[in-house]
Structures are given as structure tokens and as C-alpha cells.
Amino acid sequence: MSIGSNTVMRGAWQDRLAGGLIWALLGVTLVFLLLPLVVAVVMSLDSRPFLGQLPPPSLSLQWYAKVFTSDYIGPSFATSLVVALVAVALNATAGTAAAVAITSGRLPGSRLLAQLFLSPLVVPAVVIGFGLLLVLARLGITSGIGRLMLGHIVITLPYAIRACMASLVGQDRRLTEAAAILGANEWQAFRSVTLPLIRTGIITGAIFTLAISLDDVAVSMFLVDRQNITLPVALVTHMRAAFDLTIAAIAVMAMVFTAFVVLILDVTLGIDRVIGQGLYRSEKENS
Amino acid sequence: MGALWLILPGLTLICAGFAAPLALLARQSLDVFVPGRIGAVEGMGLTGENYRQLLTPAFLGLVWQTLWLGIATATVATAIAMPMAWAIVRRLSPRLRSLMLGLTFALVFLSVLVKIYAISMTFGAVGPFRPVLLALGINPNGRGYIEFVVAAGLVHAALPVAVLSLVGAVQNLDPRLLDAAGCLGAPRWRVHLDITLPMVRPALVSAWLIALTYAISAFVIPLVLGRGRVNFVSNMIYTRFSEIANYPSGAAISVVMLALSLITILLVARAAR
Q: What would you measure as the largest C-alpha separation in chain B, in angstroms?
């Protein structure tokens, strides 16, 4: 009996030590994740015209004003937005159609096709960008905006198709068959039965497409031309050239935008619901 | 018939924008490079020269750098993500749990550019830590420190994704198993080592693999945070294209890089089985 209590005792202080170390590690990690963002916010409010030591002596909004007067941010943001929206539109149509075709079970080799559509996910983006540049140069396509659109569709299409397929696989095929029996043609059945069921998949795909397209550098770097530069490529070029706190102001705007989007997702879809409560947690909470 | 028409637009896009580029890269990597000419020259036959030229200490060093920084950051990110997912699922109040999940979500969606800009300001050579670094005798412009900053960028980007992918596995772990081990007298740390870790092993491997493939194909993180001193293979492809316009060599490096990431994925997938 004394042995038993001994083990428990020894376990107790070791547990407390291990637990304390892990909580300390998590605390440090949280600081590591958030401190850079806080530094960016503080620096973006710096009133000095140069890059100085923290903290700034006084605060100002001058860098935010410069975002709107800068000569490169507006046009490059417009290019990014156009490219991203074209990718969203094409993924929502061509991507959804492909997902419907693959899961319909009426195509031979649908497993192989699904793999082909998802394979850009395992290829480094730089390789896709460089290869695309070679192909388009050979075809004589030199328009920056056209090249960017194709490039962004290629890297986002797998996400859109995957999201769509995930919501299609879960649905009951008898629903579409029922619509057909009731006299609906294929298009009517799709519009009134399938589409409402896979709406979440299409929206999820669109969110991923927007997030990836608006943040891509590796593919775009190869495809931009003088007239059509995306915002991330322009920012990277400026980041490397000079330290300009206008970028800090844009970074803070991006943070606010991201927080806003996540908040909307939380209110509409519910992050807790998306992730789920797991098998055992809910049981505990109900009791 | 209808299904064929449905798949055609997507299939065309994937073939033109993905399959054709990869095929052309493979073909072009065998072309002869003529300095001063953009693109390959027709009718000069095939050569393995572009690959042979990569067998230099400089390029192999680059591959090594990419691999070891990738493995190190994937390991660190997974090792931290595991207790973090555990804490979020099992230790926090429902309110704090929602807050942390929301924060993790936001960090996944936050632009990588924003993260690396913030990191370069915070940990860069003129950041707030400069006095601390100098006091510790660390040169903020030294190669070792720049490698650390690149690794910090990679961990910052990979960690939230790893946490999210582990949260599900931790949630589905039966707490009664752990309680049972505890009742039998095992201390908590033994319970975690003997029961928790083996049970979430598949999720740990896949989180590690996602982080690793992300890190070894990273482009913009080493480009900005590496300050030209620490480069990855991906950066060399871009340099071949933008600075010396050696397309055949760039194509050969692309093929090597593609092989590198596919082999990594296959090896880890096999080891996980």
C-alpha cells in the first residue's frame, strides 16, 4: 500500500512540473503568434516619417492616409480583385459542374478524374507558376491579366471541387431521382434539389478561392506584367526594396478584414458547429 | 453523355493550366541552354546537362537547407500544436474555447504576407528585440539568426493549421480510457505518453506531413524573411527565371523540386501505415 501511495505522490509532482512546463510553452507560443501582429498595429500608428525604435513617441494616422494616395496600391488591388472574382465565378460554375459529374457515377474512371482535379494541391505553387509561364509563352499568350486568371483558377479549382464534392457525397441520390420521377428534367432537378443541398460547399469553395487568390505570390510572380501587378506581388517588391510603413497600415487593414470575415462565419455558420464538439465532449456537457 | 459535357470545362482548365505545364517543364528541362536567348532553341537535341549542372555543393546545400528547415519547423509546429489542441478541447471553458478556436481560424485565414511583414518588423534587424539580441551576443544580420527568423515565419504559418487538424482527433479521443489509466495509478504524463499519443498518432502524422509539404514548397517566406541570405529551392527557380533567364535549368530544378515533394509525401504516407 505504501508503494501505491508513493507512485501517486511521485506522479503528482512530476505531473505538476510537466503541466506547468506545457502551460508555459503554450503561453510563450501565444505571445509568439500575437506579438508580431501587435507590433504591426503599433508601428502602423507611428507618427515619425522614418522607421524608428519602439514605442513611437506619438501616434498618427499618416500611414493610413498614404494607403489611399499611393500610386501602386489602388491599381494592384483592383487587379487582384478582378482576378480573384473571375476565379470565384469560374470555380463556382466549371468547378461545381465537374464535381457534379464526378460524383454522379455516370463517368468511367471517376476516381482517377477526381485525383487529377485534386493533384495541383501536391505540386509546389512555384512549379505551377513557372510551367504555366512556359506554356502560355509558347501559345503566344502574353497578356498579364489572362495569365493571372488562368494561374489563379488552377491553384484554387481543387479547393472548390473538393468542397463541392464533400457536400455532394453526403447527399441522397434518391432525392434527384424523385424529382425526375415527378417529371423534372435534369436542369430542373439540379436547380431545385441538388443546388440548395450543395450551396454550403460552393460557398466554402468560394471563400477558399478568395483567400488563396488574394494572397498568392508564388504563381503570380511569374505571370504578372508591367500593367497587371497583383497587390501581394507589389507588396513583396516594396517590402524587399524599402521599409515603408504604408505596408503596416495595409497589414492592419487586412487583419481587421480577416477578423471581420471570421466573425461573420462564426455568426452565420458557427465555428463551433463547423469543428463540432466531438464524440465525448457533448455527452459530458449534456449531463 | 450529360456528365461528359459537365466535366469538359473543368477538365480543359486543368489540362491546359496544370497537366500541359508539367509536361512542358519535363520536356524543357532536357533542352540545351543558349545564354542570351530566352527560352529553348529548337533542333539541338536533348541533353541531361541541366540536371548534371545541379550536382554542385551549392545546389545540394540548397536542397539540404530546404529539407532540414522544413523538417525542423514541421516538427516544432506539430509538437506545439498537440498540447495546444488538447488545451483548447479539454482544458478551456466553453467561452475561452470558442475564443481560441476563432483566433486559430483567423490566423489560418490571415494573409501570409501580413504575417511575414509583422515578423520581419518584430524579429528583424531593426526591430524591438535588437538590444536584446546584441546583449545576448547574437548578430541580427548573421546567417544563423536569419535562418531562425525564416523558421519562425514557417512555424507561424503552419501552427494554426496543425492545431485545427488536431482538434478533431483530440475531440474524438475517449476520455474514459485516460480516466481508467489514471484510476489504475498511472500518473498523467504516463497516461499521455502511453495512451493519448498512440491514439492520435495518425492525426499527428498527417498534421506533420501538411506542415512539412507546406514548408518545403514555401516561396514567399524565405523570399522576404531570408533577405537573400537564406534561400529555398523554390527561390532558385524564380532566380533562374528572373535574373538569368535560364529556362531549361529552371525547368530542371522544378522537376527536382516536384520529385522532392512527391517523394516526401509518399515516404511519410508509407511510414504512417
A: 77
